[in-house]
Automatic annotation (TrEMBL), chains A, B:
CDD domains: HTH_LacI, PBP1_TreR-like. Pfam families: LacI, Peripla_BP_3. This is LacI family transcriptional regulator. GO terms for molecular function: DNA-binding transcription factor activity; transcription cis-regulatory region binding. The keyword DNA repair does not apply. Residues 2-56 form the HTH lacI-type domain. The lineage of its organism: Bacteria, Bacillati, Bacillota, Bacilli, Bacillales. Transmembrane segments: none annotated. Gene3D superfamilies: 3.40.50.2300, lambda repressor-like DNA-binding domains.
DNA sequence: GGAACATATGGAATCGATTACATGATCAGG
DNA sequence: CCTGATCATGTAATCGATTCCATATGTTCC
């Protein structure tokens, strides 16, 4: 591999001069510049960012830790992050935590060893050990999806989104409403959305039956299982189902349709996420758009602010959301 | 940031010894080892891969160039790639070409400047300039999705998949078959799948009407547009539609349903891709599973072979595929 | 004509690791 | 007691860039 020294020798100048040509800095005569560029061209020399980073102390790489790569949310978010970061010449180093907290911590260390300029943590469960690790590192970290104490984060407005969805159902006249959630250890999706649901029900003085409150695990199948339980374990069926994710909602819809219960005439269903799926299932699913790509962009923005403007104080950004009314609701 | 020198000073040994402890190599006394480890622990020292790579000439990073990040195919593929690469201690540096050939070339250079150990190119259109650039670089490159001359590639069996799908329709008794493709500049999706369709029609002595051959651009909407043209521009409608991607097929289905034409009684629809969507639209879509994650794994495997076993000779791997029969076909 | 300044270039230290080589101690075997 | 392993550690070069500082040559202005 050809190095700056080769270029220097071949052009008959010092590597200092070559460096000047490369970075367009300092004084270089036109003739020297031409000569050097000519040699660079003919040798196909590409300077090593490696070596440069070692000296300049910045890699122009941002590590992105994802809970899982192949999800719609993740890919939208990464798309947004990349859009913004690439504008500023940053690259993304990907790390897949695979829903595993230990791996998340391991990746933090790994990214640190790669001397990334910053780390974006697309978070699920926030654990004390994780927070501790983050605080020990002196690399800017920005979280997306869950609030992490002490660092900048972009969070979805889970509480209000879920509250609005529930209110919507209630205002449409529903009184018997079922709920399909996920484990409350997931603070945003599990805990907050459930809290909002319960609060809204209470605000409207509606009863909540425990048999109608079920839990799934983020996939379509478990949404169906939860729905089965709701339908089978109680004498009376709810007239509406609020599932905390689109996939859970779609699983529920499948089961409802299998039982020849009409959606939305007999049971309305709503989800959260505005997945591609939600638009094309039938009936189309009423859901909430979380603007994931925008969230990615905003997260990258916070990162850039910390890197470029040396912003120290952690910021918290609350994303807005949009209700999408479709046919699964009446 | 604490360096190996700091550790050396604090532990009262040379940095050579620290390096030995770090890499578990050479001779180090138990006492020295303990001392060094203790200091490392207490300072939270993380060695710089940066500096290490500069010396050892390998970064343990693989660049992955994607035509577009937020697609189902891309995320499945990346998932597969990451699974295999992480087993071998490699990380992924992401590059988004955004369906832009110039950006693809630009990213090749950028990745080269980062001294990645290899590059995986998830390809769409192969252009001569791109091939030239690849050949000039002395970094292992593996392509996925399209065959690139001179380098290892993993390709889907577009021809046979499309031929099988067409035969399937014909054997179900369909004679009037419409086709929704994409631009033939996309060799795999555009050219090969169309060629297979035409070949199969010919083999069964079936006529192909030009009004029934339409083109879209990879999204659901354009599938619908193509379908509208097919239905409106010809006196007689086809009894089956073969769309080269699931999204095109789903767009077509939407339009067919809007016109109150029954799927599959009046028109059957098939796609390719086995997208999540295909399973949950109604009727569910008959499609072809391309095993994207597996393809990602295999691609990573080829890369590992080149890196670890120093395999020189380019290999070509043809992926298998699986027909998924669902309700959109009769 | 010399001080002050702009222009052009190179020498050498530096970033944080690895590693070839040298050196010194310890110990076993003849 | 000497020889040659084996063990333990350190010195210094190296990877490929950037950058501070020194030096040399013009150029300008009083």
């Amino acid at each position: 591999m050809v190095t700056i020294n080769d270029i220097a020798n071949l052009s008959g100048v010092s590597r200092t001069t070559v460096s000047r040509v490369l970075n367009n800095s300092g004084y270089v005569s036109e003739s020297a510049k031409r000569k050097v560029q000519e040699i660079i061209e003919s040798t196909g020399y590409v300077p090593s960012e490696q070596a440069k980073s070692l000296r300049t102390k910045q890699t122009k790489v941002i590590g992105v830790i994802l809970p899982k790569i192949s999800t719609e949310t993740a890919s939208r978010v990464v798309d947004g992050i990349d859009k913004k970061l690439s504008e500023h010449g940053y690259h993304i180093l990907l790390a897949n935590a695979n829903l595993n907290v230990e791996k998340e911590i391991e990746h933090l260390r790994l990214l640190q060893s790669r001397r990334v300029d910053g780390i974006i943590l697309v978070a699920t469960n926030i654990e004390t050990q994780l927070i501790k690790t983050i605080q020990e590192m002196n690399v800017p970290v920005v979280a997306l999806g869950q609030e992490v104490p002490g660092i900048s984060s972009v969070v979805y407005d889970d509480y209000h989104a879920a509250y609005d969805v529930t209110s919507l159902l209630i205002e449409k006249g529903h009184k018997r409403i079922g709920f399909i959630g996920v484990s409350e250890t997931d603070r945003a999706v599990g805990f907050e959305r459930k809290r909002a649901f319960l609060d809204a029900m209470k605000a409207y003085n509606l009863d909540v039956y425990s048999a109608w409150i079920q839990e799934g695990v983020f996939d379509i199948h478990s949404g169906g299982q939860a729905m089965k339980t709701i339908l089978e374990e109680s004498p009376q069926s709810p007239t509406a189902i609020f599932a905390v994710t689109d996939r859970l909602a779609i699983g529920a819809m499948q089961v409802i349709k299998e039982k020849n219960i009409d959606i939305p005439k007999q049971i309305s269903v709503v989800g959260i996420g505005a997945s591609d799926l939600s638009k094309y299932v039938s009936p189309s699913l009423t859901t909430v758009d979380y603007y994931n790509e925008k969230a990615g962009i905003e997260t990258a923005n916070l990162m850039i602010e910390q890197l470029v403007k040396k912003e120290e104080k952690p910021k918290k950004l609350l994303m807005s959301y949009g209700l999408i009314l479709r046919d699964s609701l009446s």
